[in-house]
């Protein structure tokens, strides 16, 4: 099972980066040994951390947190979207292209579309 964490800090713009990179991802490692990632947003005030247990797409293209449309949308989550293949076909018909075989990327495109 993947591990996810988020952090929001209201004042010190360097605090978020230090806490996430040095603490949270270390505590999550046992939840997903296949990869780990951290995305930091909004002047270092919001961070998402993710450790991944690869199931659907074993490649590095499924790395999370994942961003979409030049970082307009970002996500980190643990779960499975059972109808993501049908959603993907519908989104491809609308002109979306995908780089991975993950349901995560489909969720981001669906959010952008609908």
Q: pLDDT below 50 for ≥5 consecutive residues: which ranges?
A: none
Biggest β-sheet: strands ordered side by side in the sheet: 1-3-2
The percent range for strand residues is 15-25%
What's the alpha carbon Rg, rounded to whole Å? 15 Å
Q: Strand pairing plus helix content: what structural class?
A: alpha+beta
Q: Report how far apart the termini are.
A: 28 Å
Number of strands: 5
Total count of helical runs of at least 4 residues: 3
Sheet with most strands: 3 strands, antiparallel
Q: What is the N-to-C succession of helices and strands?
A: EHEEEEHH
Dominant shape: globular
Average pLDDT score: 78
Give the fraction of residues assigned to helices.
25-40%
3D structure, described in words:
With 114 residues, the protein is α+β, with helices and mostly antiparallel strands. It contains three helices and five strands; from the N terminus they run E-H-E-E-E-E-H-H. A hairpin with a 4-residue loop joins strand 4 (66-68) and strand 5. Helix 2 packs across helix 3. The longest helix is centred in the first third of the chain and has 14 residues, at 15-28. The two termini are 28 Å apart.
């Amino acid at each position: 099972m993947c591990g996810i964490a988020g952090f929001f800090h209201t004042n010190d713009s360097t605090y978020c980066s230090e806490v996430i990179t040095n603490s949270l991802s270390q505590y999550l490692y046992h939840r997903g040994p296949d990869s780990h990632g951290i995305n930091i947003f909004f002047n270092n005030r919001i961070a998402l951390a993710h450790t991944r247990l690869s199931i659907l797409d074993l490649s590095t293209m499924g790395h999370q947190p994942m961003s979409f449309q030049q970082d307009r949308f970002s996500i980190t989550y643990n779960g499975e979207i059972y109808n993501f293949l049908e959603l993907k076909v519908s989104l491809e018909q609308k002109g979306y292209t995908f780089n991975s075989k993950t349901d995560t990327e489909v969720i981001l495109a669906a959010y952008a579309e609908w």
